[in-house]
Amino acid sequence: MKQKDSLLQGPIWKGLILFAMPILLGQIFQQLYNTADAWIVGKYLPGAPYAAVTSTGSLVFLLVGFFGGISVGAGSVIARYYGANDIEKLRKTIHTTILFGLFAGVLLTVIGVGFTPTILRWMSAPKDSIEYSIEYFRLYFLGGIAISMYNLCMGILRAVGDSKHPLYYLIVSSLINVALDFLFMGYFGWGVWSAAFATTISQFVSCVLCLIRLFRCKEIYQLKTKELRVDKERLKEIIHYGLPSGLQNSVIAFANVIVQTNINSFGSVAQSGCGTYAKLEGFAFLPITCFTMALTTFVSQNLGAKQYERTKQGTKFGIICAVILAEIVGVILILFAKPLMESFIHNDPEAVKIGIQQANIESLFFCFLAFSHCIAAILRGAGKPVAPMFVMLGTWCALRVAYISIFVPIVGKPWVIFSAYPLTWTISSIIYLIFYLKSDWIHGFEKRDKKHLAAHIEREKK
Fold it and tell me: Which pTM does this prediction carry?
């Protein structure tokens, strides 16, 4: 049975799990990128260099998140045409996506390298670690083309139902990343910049492997140099479905930058503790991530094939699995927070204490985080990306930032920052539940197609 058939035919639970498991394994290896950096830097370059690496998440997502959101839109369009077996539009969308990725990579490099010092100062990065952060980020973003193309190519393969090859490439690149970290810092004794250098090299390797796969495969989604051109209609679709997700990612990332600024105000100890918890939390999010990715592809493909009842059944199964898994992982994270934190942070009990406190406050609410992400993924897969954008911006950005900005100066304790996350996850889940049950999300693509057809007929009349 082909992977395509496992999503469009046969038992839903089997198809989703078979598709989601390689994504989960791939996300585990991908998470090793930053985790390996953090662990090895913590071992060989403790103190300020370690704080510089562990606090990288919000800035990276601020710059990468926008283009990542666009790739989500491209993936939903590709999956829809793949499910509908519309080969012409499928091929045009894929080739347009590749060219967009090259442009995005160049832009990401220019912005990342040029504006890193300014953004870090806006974030009030501690003086004892800011130079290390600038060093790390600038080298990281020199690989902007690899970052952009790697994510888009992975998205193309997953959109057509291939979640296995992305797994293979992630394993290879992750092993390269870890090996180079040990070589550069452990053997050569290089500085914190070498952790970014190792990550950049590994991402270039996975990018090249993805491109080789797309150019050499004999499937209907094969890349061909002579077909590499921008199709205006397909580009409009990609931007229409991807722009809301891109804006959402960027604004949420900006909100996280504000949160990180508040964390930085408590000094490098809080920076290290929260940064280390973020690495651990990244693994806890993996069950959520794998099912949200699987749900977006599943929904887009099945709606493209007009299998509405199958789509509804699949979304229910995916939501239940993600919520249960997320809560189990949350409980495990609380139980083992101390030894996990200590495995990264050496001889800094105050930083460990802060990380444990954050785990105790946030982890039991992972079920709400999972639910929100699942509904957002379903809506994007159904061609309704604007709704999750407004929900996320209203709760995870505006409300979260307002809460922190008001209460941190009053209370003056890091736990106030941590409590903002369960609060906003819960509120967004309530809103999403209402939207999922009451709105007609199942016909998102069809409604837009009808509007376009009506507009076309009107233009022809004129």
Answer: 0.78
